[in-house]
């Protein structure tokens, strides 16, 4: 079955161009030029990945990302015409999995869509091999790889696909340090992430917030300065 991609961008030329490239890859594309028109599509839940522009006429992409994250965990890629690092960090902090700065090459967006969907589908039920433990735990934290569920002291924790992947890598190596380079390779597998350590830092911070953890007195994710992270 073809994955369903949601595009929301008020720059019609960009939205139309992305639609063409994604349809050429056999994706089903739902395209909208404003958030209001896309709401019924979002609420249907029948989406595998969303591409959101930050600057929309009726709602900014950050607010829309937050709205989606209240209910859904599918990957979100933000489009931004701004180059400020704070905008990128804001998007990641609010639950986005990736960002692309305009102007961009459509093929780069397609590559990132494929990378996000690979990771998202990897942790879906039915494709985990028997060699991989279906459940990983540490202290009061439990991660079920087959059901894509995270529990903290018995209570569910809503994680984005990227957050789930990072936590899965760290729990799989519990007790050992995982370098930032190893995390990038295991989670993204894409060269364009190799020099952007701020991306992983933001995701780790967001994970800590969801786990009621802190960098000063960590119960779960510990920073090993100059090396990486460990559980």
From TrEMBL:
Gene of this entry: vanR
DNA-binding region positions on the chain: 133-231
GO biological process assignments: regulation of DNA-templated transcription
GO molecular function terms attached to this record: phosphorelay response regulator activity; transcription cis-regulatory region binding
SMART domains in the record: REC, Trans_reg_C
Function text: May play the central regulatory role in sporulation. It may be an element of the effector pathway responsible for the activation of sporulation genes in response to nutritional stress. Spo0A may act in concert with spo0H (a sigma factor) to control the expression of some genes that are critical to the sporulation process.
Taxonomic classification: Bacteria, Bacillati, Bacillota, Clostridia, Lachnospirales
Pfam families linked to this entry: Response_reg, Trans_reg_C
Organism the protein comes from: Hominifimenecus microfluidus
Keyword Kinase: no
This protein's name: Stage 0 sporulation protein A homolog
Entries under InterPro entries matching the protein: CheY-like_superfamily (IPR011006), OmpR/PhoB-type_DNA-bd (IPR001867), Sig_transdc_resp-reg_C-effctor (IPR016032), Sig_transdc_resp-reg_receiver (IPR001789), VanR-like (IPR058211), WalR-like (IPR039420), WH-like_DNA-bd_sf (IPR036388)
